[in-house]
Design goal:
The complex is a heterotrimer of chains A (589), B (285) and C (319). With 589 residues, chain A is an alpha+beta fold. Chain A contains 16 helices and 23 strands. Chain A starts with a helix and ends with a strand. Chain B is built from 12 helices and no strands. Chain B is elongated and about 80 Å long. By secondary structure, chain C is mainly α. Helix content of chain C is 78%, strand content 0%. The longest helix of chain C is centred in the last third of the chain and has 39 residues, at 228-266. The N and C termini of chain C lie close together (11 Å). Classes of the chains: A alpha+beta (589), B mainly alpha (285), C mainly alpha (319). At the B-C interface, helix 5, helix 6, helix 9, helix 10 and helix 11 of B face helix 1, helix 6, helix 7, helix 8 and helix 10 of C.
């Protein structure tokens, strides 16, 4: 063999070798990617170009993928990330939604009734660490945990001596009872986070203050699901005494704050739990949650009527950004409205009609009418694992802004389906809570203008929106329902996709059924390697592009506002996850 | 009865009446030909001009969904007028017949009527309308009914008192003595005398009906959402008050004020001309 | 005179009963709404079985025959128990206690404003009949009569936000706790409603004065040589004000209904806003009892007006 050929082969081998090793390197180390993005901010009618940092974090490797894991964090003590915290004071927080009942798990996973309000009085087994921006896991009620090598058994050891607010001791029985209700809810209630715990098979008291969860198969997301804000432990006695339905009763919790009272539409108050199992916390004496409308929440912080707001309106945020007296930050959120039709009956059982609707709606117009809040989202939030970067999918049909060609194609598809210029199209109404809002108005406008249809809005009360899926109009295929997606705080969006797009799933109100997607999602549930999962996710997204189940309005962002005297690591948060403020403290005033 | 020539004289006599008549004619034209007059489709969203203040392209600006405010206002005229007129016609018709029969026949029916009227008058009409809408649900017909119900009691009272006065007049007594059937007495002799007060009450009620329709849509209880009515356009601004899109609230409000004012002025003029006794205002030239 | 008062009060009672019947009847036209809204929520579908739905019906008493329900409601009202809001589970009485002071404050201020502005305008217009000032003020009156109160309120809000970047606070602030802040909340609303009422008062005052001026006893007073303003104040005003007082009482109804839209426009947490919220939620307990209270207030106010009327004008008593 001559030298040039040998060099060539060597070059190829080394290239392959480098690639192989290179990808290994990328797989093992979580990488923080910081993007600088140009954002238009409208501040008092002048448009200011500002650079905003958008931070995305790739997920950590999933435990149990081959090695047994044993974690002992019993000497971990949570405290403020800043030195010399000041004790005392009542935190005035503004929130927006009327809390309709007090069952922390029956609260919907979707936005609306605020599990974050009651979160301050409960604990889960493990949680995400606010001091690292909610990216790493830390102990909550469990100070030690073990995961079997095959990923099928999770064991949690409960801290000793933890008391509920009524003085009773926390035991494994409480954990078992709580999770039994989550995994197998009785007939008369509906548990919002059930869809995130589908892989659990049995829950048992393992003796010596251990609780043992056995899974049906190894799962990529199941362990992280325990960090969810409302995967909290309720006392068994309270559950039993109330027939497992505690919507009218505030069950005592183990958390840093105790419930005091609630005047709907006005405020909810909590006081410090003096016997909290973490003797350091909390620093403040209590929380007063003040009910206020969207813009008012930001304004309240600016005018010092409140100290902290998890979310305010775009108007309130612009005001806060322009005001030196407060801090504000925009963080991506995982809530979105969607427009859902009945995929099981005509006309939407025809894939042409579905595609036509997808192509005829310019998702960037949703961004415009929401003042930049809702971004086009390709079936999952952009911060989810495996999401397509915007630069890529903003060029795809159905997702691009310059969509004259898409509209033409949509019109042709409608004609092919037998509804040229929407003649004879049976869909007459779109129903929602506020169908005269900018979002639904622009949806109807695009469909009516681009396809020639005549869809009119219909309003129902917020609590009845979901009922419309069982209504005659929807069942006959003549109505579209505007609803909210379930919110999920963990990065692996497989459970979400399963819930919304999986055949027969509890959140799949649109009766969408795509066998290819079902198979992919089922595989992903058990797939432990994140890169492979990401690849599968891309595949699912393109399958949904070809066969759209609904139209997403777009996942938006939340805009937090807080006073400079408030000490809480908001700067590290990369996602809008509301809830625990046990490490918050305020300067003396 | 008023003849056309007299009508023109009346209108020209008072500058305010002239002003009101012009406004009403303009409203009528807008109500009859909205699509021809409005510059754009009221439901069409203009994404390049979202939330735009008044410009050359959109003379009265656009709303939060990019829809042209002027076009929406023009299309709103028809809805407002139809609802207001329907409600007034309904309530005055019912009130007229009820008041007449109650006043003429008297007896237990009259007593019952009086009690019912007193009860109805004890609930402010807007609140009565809200109550009805809560029970019946929103929609064009229910809004008309809700507004109409509030106007019945006052009409009954006025017509009834007119009838009581007329009933005792000599010619009515004579007709009764001649054995004329009550129905004929009512329609031939009494009713025509009641038209004047009826007209006055009706014209006054029109302004109130327009206000009621606007208030109901402002509160979100009007006809279908998205339909361009002046009241519903104003309700959006109330929620987003930090950077208010003032043009969405101010212009429909001006239109509302002008329309109500015009109906009130016409009503005043009618009152002055037709029945000085009723208006309680001394006419002075 | 006491006989007259007694008779008026006696008549008011069946009126009140009639009002309660009307409210009750109107609300029951479409049954089942609230229960439907309660048994499902945003996550699950029907959360209860048919059997449990029945038991909810029973616990709310919606199963009983209508007259029993009505009787129960009336009994509760008389014992001061206005039930519990379906949605918030807080007693309606508690809601009202928190919200009423704000609305009462607005009402009282509106009344004061309407008299303080309306009377002088009306009197001056009457006394200077047919002058430029008279025509001008009649024009203004016509304008303010036509402006919808919630539009005026919205206009103030927009003006203050755009020009002064200030808006009134949106919390419940009791007058006795913090009078200045409380006035910040109530005044814009009171001005919006009060100016409309002032126009009515001005108009009524003007026409009433003009009518009285033509009366014989005024001519007599003038011919006695009394100065004009003495005539006006001593003889004319006292009698002319009677219809004005009456109309104020009747306007109270407009005041109450106006407060609903105005409170919504200014985001004021008063009784009007409570009613609007209750209507949106189909919360019958709130709607029923609140409307009853509104009607009750209206009847009482008019009763008081009638009694005052009868003390001033003896002719009425012998009706």
């Amino acid at each position: 063999m001559n030298i040039s050929k040998f060099t060539f082969i060597l070059a190829i081998i080394s290239t392959v070798f480098v690639f192989a090793c290179g990808s290994e390197v990328i797989k093992e180390v979580p990488v923080e990617v910081v993007k600088e993005v140009q954002v238009d901010k409208i501040v008092k009618e002048t448009v200011v170009q500002v650079e905003e940092k958008v931070i995305t974090v790739t997920p950590t490797a999933i435990p149990g993928g081959g090695t047994a894991i044993s974690v002992d964090m019993s000497d971990f003590v949570l405290e403020s990330n800043e030195p010399n915290p000041v004790r005392g004071g009542i935190l005035r927080m503004t929130f927006g939604v009327s809390v309709k009942h007090t069952d922390h798990h029956q609260m919907p996973v979707a936005q609306g009734a605020g599990p974050h309000n009651l979160t301050v009085m409960y604990n889960g087994l493990i949680r995400m660490n606010p001091n690292t921006g909610m990216t790493t896991i830390m102990p909550d009620l469990a100070d030690k945990w073990e995961i079997s090598a095959d990923g099928m058994i999770y064991k949690f050891h409960l801290r000793e001596g933890v008391k509920f607010h009524d003085g009773s001791l926390l035991t494994p029985d409480d954990v078992v009872a709580t999770f039994e209700r989550i995994v197998n809810p009785p007939d008369h209630i509906a548990i919002g986070i059930q869809s995130l715990f589908t892989e659990i098979d049995t829950i048992k008291d393992g003796g010596d203050n251990w609780v043992i969860f056995t899974l049906k198969r190894p799962s990529a997301h199941q362990f992280n699901a325990f960090t969810m804000l409302n995967a909290t432990i309720l006392p068994k006695k309270c559950l039993e005494d109330n027939n497992y339905d505690v919507r009218e009763v505030v069950c005592p919790g183990t958390g840093p704050f105790k419930f005091v009272d609630y005047i709907p539409g006005e405020y909810m108050t909590f006081e410090k739990n003096e016997d909290y199992w973490n003797p350091n916390l909390p620093y403040i004496d209590g929380i007063k949650m003040i009910h206020a409308g969207g813009t008012a929440r930001g304004v309240n912080v600016i005018t010092d009527v409140a100290d902290f707001a998890w979310n305010t309106s775009e108007d309130g945020y612009a005001q806060a950004q322009a005001d030196d007296r407060v801090h504000s930050k925009r963080m991506p959120n995982t809530g979105s409205n969607y427009f859902g039709w009945n995929n099981a009956v005509a006309p939407f059982n025809d894939i042409n009609v579905r595609k036509a609707f997808h192509l005829a709606t310019n998702k960037h117009n949703f961004t415009r009418v929401s003042l930049g809040s809702a971004k086009p989202s390709r079936w999952i939030p952009t911060l989810a694992e495996g999401a397509t970067p915007e630069e890529e999918f903003f060029n795809l049909a159905g997702w691009r802004d310059d969509n004259a060609a898409d509209i033409k194609a949509a019109q042709q598809l409608m004609a092919d389906a037998g509804y040229p210029n929407c003649e004879g199209f049976p869909v007459k109404t779109m129903v929602g809570y506020k169908p005269d809002g900018a979002g639904p108005v622009s949806f109807m406008d695009m469909i009516n203008t681009n396809l020639g249809c005549d869809i009119q809005p219909r309003a129902v009360e917020r609590a009845l929106v979901q009922d419309q899926y069982a209504g005659d109009a929807f069942k006959a295929g003549t109505e579209i329902v505007m609803h909210l997606v379930p919110v999920q705080a963990i990065k692996n969006y497989t459970p979400f996709m399963l819930g919304l797009y999986g055949t027969g799933s509890s959140q799949n109100f649109t009766n969408y059924s795509n066998p290819e997607v079902d198979v992919l999602l089922d595989t992903m549930l058990g797939e432990l390697d994140p890169t492979t999962r990401a690849a599968f996710t891309r595949l699912v997204q393109s399958k949904l592009d070809e066969n759209p189940p609904l139209i997403l309005f777009g996942f938006d962002s939340h805009r937090a506002v807080w006073g400079p005297h408030v000490h809480f690591p908001m700067d590290r948060r990369t996602q809008s996850i509301w809830g625990r403020v046990d490490t918050i403290w305020m300067d003396k005033r | 009865m008023i003849r056309i020539k007299n009508l023109l004289i009346i209108i020209k006599s008072n500058p305010l009446t002239l002003f009101a008549t012009i406004i009403l004619i303009v409203m009528l034209v807008l109500a009859l030909f909205p699509s021809q007059i409005a510059p754009m489709d009221p439901q069409k969203a203009h994404y390049d001009a979202l939330r735009s203040p008044p410009t050359m392209q959109h003379l009265l600006g656009t709303d939060y969904a990019g829809r042209d405010v002027a076009s929406r206002m023009i299309h709103g005229v028809r809805t407002t007028l139809i609802i207001a007129f329907s409600a007034v016609i309904l309530s005055k018709t019912i009130g007229f017949f009820w008041g007449m029969t109650s006043g003429y026949f008297g007896g237990w029916f009259d007593l019952l009527t009086q009690r019912i009227i007193e009860v109805m008058l004890s609930i402010p009409s807007l609140i009565l309308a809200l109550l009805l809408l809560a029970g019946l649900g929103s929609g064009r017909l229910t809004v008309i009914i809700a507004i109409a119900v509030g106007g019945i009691a006052g009409t009954v009272r006025i017509i009834r008192s007119s009838v009581l006065t007329i009933k005792n007049m000599a010619y009515v007594e004579a007709a009764k003595a001649m054995g004329t059937h009550p129905i004929i007495i009512i329609f031939r002799h009494i009713a025509p005398q009641c038209f004047a007060p009826l007209l006055v009450v009706a014209s006054v009620s029109l302004g109130g009906a327009i206000f009621a329709e606007a208030a109901l849509s402002f509160l979100g209880l009007g006809i279908t959402p998205n339909a361009p009515t002046w009241g519903s356009m104003m309700s959006v601004v109330a929620e987003n008050y930090l950077r208010p899109l003032w043009w969405i609230a101010i212009f429909p409000g001006i239109a509302l004020t002008l329309t109500i004012m015009s109906f009130n002025l016409i009503g005043d003029e009618l009152r002055d001309r037709l029945d000085p006794k009723l208006k309680g205002e001394v006419k002075d030239n | 005179m006491y006989k007259y008062i007694f008779r008026r009060v006696l008549i008011a009672i069946p009126t009140l009963v009639g009002v309660s019947l009307v409210i009750f009847f109107f609300m029951r036209i479409l049954p089942g709404d609230v229960v439907d809204a309660m048994v499902t929520d945003e996550t699950g579908a029907m959360v209860f079985t048919e059997q449990q739905r029945e038991s909810i019906n029973e616990s709310l008493g919606l199963n009983r025959p209508l007259y029993v329900q009505y009787g129960g409601w009336m009994k509760d009202v008389f014992t001061g128990d206005m039930g519990y809001s379906f949605w918030t589970k807080i007693s309606v009485g508690e809601h009202i206690r928190r919200r009423a002071p704000m609305t009462i404050e607005i009402t009282v201020l509106s009344l004061i404003i309407s008299w303080v502005i309306g009377l002088p305008v009306g009197i001056l217009a009457a006394v200077n009949r047919n002058s430029i000032g008279d025509y001008f003020s009649r024009g203004i009156v016509i304008f303010f009569l036509a402006v919808p109160s919630f539009y005026a309120a919205l206009g103030f809000l927009i003006f203050f936000v755009l020009v002064f970047t200030w808006r009134p606070p949106v919390d419940v602030i009791f007058f006795w706790q913090n009078p200045i802040q409380s006035l910040y909340v109530a005044l814009p609303a009171a001005v919006a409603i009060g100016t409309g009422m002032a126009a009515v008062i001005a108009r009524m005052a003007r026409s009433s004065i003009l009518e009285v001026i033509r009366e014989d006893y005024v001519r007599t007073a003038r011919s006695k040589g009394l100065a004009n303003n003495v005539v006006i104040t001593k003889h004319v005003l006292k009698n002319a004000l009677i219809p004005v007082v009456t109309i104020s009482g009747l306007q109270f109804g407009n005041l109450l209904s106006g407060s609903i839209a105005v409170e919504m426009a200014l985001s004021i947490p008063g009784l009007g806003a409570l009613l609007a919220q209750g209507l949106a939620d189909r919360d019958w307990m709130i709607i029923q009892n609140l409307v009853l209270i509104f009607a009750f207030a209206f009847i009482v106010i008019n009763l008081i007006v009638d009694i005052i009327y009868s003390t001033i004008d003896p002719r009425i008593r012998y009706d």
